[in-house]
Amino acid sequence: MALAIRDVTEHDLDAVLALNNAAGQSILALDAAQLRYFFERADYFRVAEIDGHLAGFLIALREGGDYHSPNYRWFSEHYPAFVYIDRIVIANAYRRHGLGRIFYCDVTSYAEVRVPLLACEVFLEPRDDVVVLFHGTYGFQEVGQQRMASQERQVSLLAKDLPSYAYVRDTWLEHGGLPDVPWLAERHRLLPTNQPRRHAGERHA
């Protein structure tokens, strides 16, 4: 089995949209315009490809964006810098095989050299104990709850401290930035002309 975790491409979008909207009630549905927003704006948008087939994806955004998700806005109001996992979807054929942990390791690797906190939420209605346990064993702790008015569902807001960030900040981010190597690079994405590309370590109010 050949597994690749890579940045999304435009050619992946139809398959990503279909996978998202087949995921059931644990993942909010998307339309093409919403997915295009993520393609253009998300700081982290990677897919898992197994033997040439799209097996899953994860989308995450940093602070300072114009994303109107109530959960993203909650973290924006409570933390100055973070990477927020908006969604992770694994195709049915590849679930329960550790692909979620691989994605979380990868997004953690992305986040810990840029921000001190990794954030996400899980639905409590209906509650999925496997999902709750997964996040707990991966080091997330509940930092709040809120009810999503549009969905009328309670969510648990989770955060994980990234202790490596302080070392990276003091060693590199405050002294010229991260080394110029491929695994530390930002993804290539389309941005509106009035939104500059953000570099590691920058904060936006």
TrEMBL record:
InterPro entries registered for this protein in UniProt: Acyl_CoA_acyltransferase, GNAT_dom
Pfam family, one: Acetyltransf_1
SUPFAM superfamilies: Acyl-CoA N-acyltransferases (Nat)
The protein, known as: GNAT family N-acetyltransferase
Positions of the N-acetyltransferase domain: 3-163
Lineage, uppermost ranks: Bacteria, Pseudomonadati, Pseudomonadota, Gammaproteobacteria, Lysobacterales
Organism: Dyella agri
